[in-house]
């Protein structure tokens, strides 16, 4: 009896233990869990670019889940096939196929075996095969069939070997350019792929046999053959594209020779106005006419020699090159040439391949910065007038090409200016580049982007995930149950199912926030920034969350008005309370930085300055944020943090790679030129010795160190210069009652109080100063006199360093590119609009200023009725820009074109506040990344099934035991 009772107890204990095990396991597996995406596998694609001179193989890859229907494609590997292009193997059976073997074997090794069958292979032949197809179509078909049969022998998904049309080549080149410039999609600073909504960039390609123009347009495309519609990253694009066969560099040179033979009536000897004087050569006629682009003469002897003598005559060369184009027979509303429709060009363009090399050669040889049609003509003139000996002495390593640069330059001039229609306004929007985003451009990447749009995405692999706390509880419980029911083998299996196939997965990092208050001279702005709490190489990936402009003037305007400055901040700070999650309030730093307005107040009324700062500091301490200080920002800090902002928004410090990594692009940084109301700043990275250590700042951002020169000039801001100019004119003209103002336009007159001139520490008050006296001002509009007076505001003497711009301040030589913003941008923009001159050089700047300064006030009002009181100041503003940039900072004919005058960087207004938050985030501790334990779906399903079976079996076992006990008790 005792034995039987013990046996029953054992059964109950066993069943109970199994029951607890099953219930506990199921509960912990379903509470709390969520689906977590596994990083997707990669898909691959192979594109063979069969050009006229050689074949290149590109292997691309992209995440298998794709983004808005298109793969985030990056180049995985590149291989150049030995030998010539496949068109060169016409008549050489097996040669074209054999040339591809080495690269295809490399592809077999590079692409994972599991992906071979899913990897598309496409061979596209371009202009070389297009010409072969015209002259020898049968041989063209044989070559294509041969390479297609070869590619089918590999375990990839062969998609075809075809001759790419000119329109396709142009369109896919356009896709490549805009993809690499991140105009379709970019990775946002808080972990999302975004469509930036930028305008696309047109593509100008100049190859050996053809040239292409492609750009997005909203105009009606009258010839539908020129219209292509593409869908990329969830957006539709409508582009115009046209390819001109026989208008490539090599074919143009051959056509020019044939044209000269025809016009000079000789196939024995010709004089060549595009070849440099002193150059002569002898070639076979077959080298001129063995192309379908040239019509062979009636009596054609391919082995005859043709003697060529260069004369180097620009005008004659230009005339002959122009005759290669047909400007007649247009059946559309507008044609570029050869009767081909083209809508008006709009927006920015990138010109690459032979466009880049020609443009680069012209600038290098002539020293002319080519940013307008006039500059292009001037540079071409210089090159065409150089003798062959001069060119050879000046340029090393390009002997075989030197004879052709005059002809090619003249062709580029005719094509871009006279045919495509780039004028003095649109030409500066052409960027001549060898690469886009550090990658050589071409049609192959663009094609793979389009092809990836057609390939099905794979389902995202999901895992069930547990938070760390739930996982720990699960482990403790199962250890306990293991001790209670040692003999139960299923317990071990359950635990094994929970620990195998697991890995740590990072949860998306929470966001940290920061508040920066930019207390300027005219108003205060409150910026809320955010960045992932785990940071990147020590610095937050910061983006602007929201912005609020405080009503009223800047805090300096409340000097003597107790409580006014603090009260003005309340509305924006209450908004910040709502915008930032409550759980983040205590962790959110708040910083108020006052700039030039408070710097001036601190000079003239230091006690009132301190009182204003204390008042706003006390106010900000009442909010539940982490108050970091309310200070007057030094001029150097303002300049340095403005530089940080510019380069951050231009992605010079860090960029998101196309395969999911933040990368340091290693790009050269851009200098910053800021012209405010009270001060002006210049800041740029330099490797030179900075002789005055006050001008040196060292910053660490995104794992890299930067050494920058920065200088702020107080009282050289736009508003203060205008006041200083008035004070100077009063002094030089010896009157405090009336003055003539050479910088104000003729016909303008005004009366102002003397207090408005001298109520600033930038001007020294006269001995007998009566602030309420009136000053009569009459404008005369004289450029030379205005320039002279503005120049006298600068001190160009007394330099104790090796080099000074002005006022005895050290500055190293300027290098690299610069962005000029704030009043620099507005003044430059007005000059171009008013004068109708594209200002890209010091000479252009002077010409434009002369036009503005010579305009009467009535003319200006008629032409620009919306400018109001700003009109009277534009002459002085412009001359300040001229003196400051040219005479002060030292921008020359070579360096001035490297200044980009812009209102915004990447659609964001620039200033010191974002740069400061980037630097501040470098000091804030990063949070530990939250980690989850994860199970693969197969392990999850097995665990749930096992626990469910165990639960049912346990309940059944308990019921059966209970029934047996009940039967025995009743019997």
CATH class of the largest domain: Alpha Beta
Briefly note the structural class of the backbone: alpha/beta
Backbone shape: flat
In total, how many domains does the architecture comprise?
Answer: 5
Strand content: 15-25%
Q: What does the main sheet amount to?
A: 6 strands, mixed
Quick recap of the structure?
By secondary structure, the protein is of the alpha/beta class.
Could you explain the architecture of this structure?
- It is a single chain.
- The model is unreliable at 1-5, 454-464, 485-505 and 928-933 (pLDDT under 50).
- A 6-stranded mixed sheet has the order 11-12-10-9-16-17. A 6-stranded mixed sheet has the order 31-32-30-29-36-37. A 5-stranded mixed sheet has the order 4-3-2-5-6, with helices on both faces.
- It is an alpha/beta fold and 971 residues long.
- β27 and β28 form a beta hairpin.
- The protein has 5 domains: 2-37 and 461-507 and 934-970, no CATH class; 40-163, Nucleotidyltransferase, domain 5 (2-Layer Sandwich); 249-328 and 354-429, Nucleotidyltransferase, domain 5; 511-650 and 910-921, 2-Layer Sandwich (Nucleotidyltransferase, domain 5); 718-905, Exopolyphosphatase. Domain 2 (Nucleotidyltransferase, domain 5, 2-Layer Sandwich).
- The longest helix is centred in the last third of the chain and has 34 residues, at 937-970.
- 39% of the residues lie in helices and 22% in strands.
- The protein is flat.
- It is a multi-pass membrane protein.
- The active site is at residue 638.
Write the layout of secondary structure elements.
Blueprint: H1 2-30, E1 33-37, E2 42-50, E3 55-63, E4 74-80, H2 95-99, H3 101-110, E5 120-125, H4 127-135, H5 137-151, E6 157-163, H6 166-180, E7 186-187, E8 193-194, E9 202-206, E10 210-216, E11 227-232, E12 235-245, H7 249-264, E13 269-272, E14 280-284, H8 286-289, E15 305-310, H9 314-322, E16 349-353, H10 354-366, H11 373-384, H12 388-394, H13 399-402, H14 405-420, E17 430-432, E18 435-436, E19 439-440, H15 443-452, E20 462-467, H16 468-484, H17 489-499, E21 502-506, E22 511-519, E23 524-532, E24 543-549, H18 564-568, H19 570-579, E25 589-594, H20 596-604, H21 606-620, E26 626-632, H22 635-649, E27 655-656, E28 662-663, E29 671-675, E30 679-685, E31 696-701, E32 704-714, H23 718-733, E33 738-741, E34 749-753, H24 755-758, E35 774-779, H25 783-791, E36 818-822, H26 823-835, H27 842-853, H28 857-863, H29 874-889, E37 899-901, E38 904-905, E39 908-909, H30 912-921, E40 931-935, H31 937-970
Parallel strand pairs: 2-5, 5-6, 9-16, 13-15, 16-17, 22-25, 25-26, 29-36, 33-35, 36-37
Antiparallel strand pairs: 1-20, 2-3, 3-4, 7-8, 9-10, 10-12, 11-12, 14-15, 18-19, 20-40, 21-40, 22-23, 23-24, 27-28, 29-30, 30-32, 31-32, 34-35, 38-39
Helix pairs in contact: 1-16, 1-31, 4-5, 6-15, 9-14, 10-11, 10-14, 11-14, 20-21, 22-30, 25-29, 26-27, 26-29, 27-29
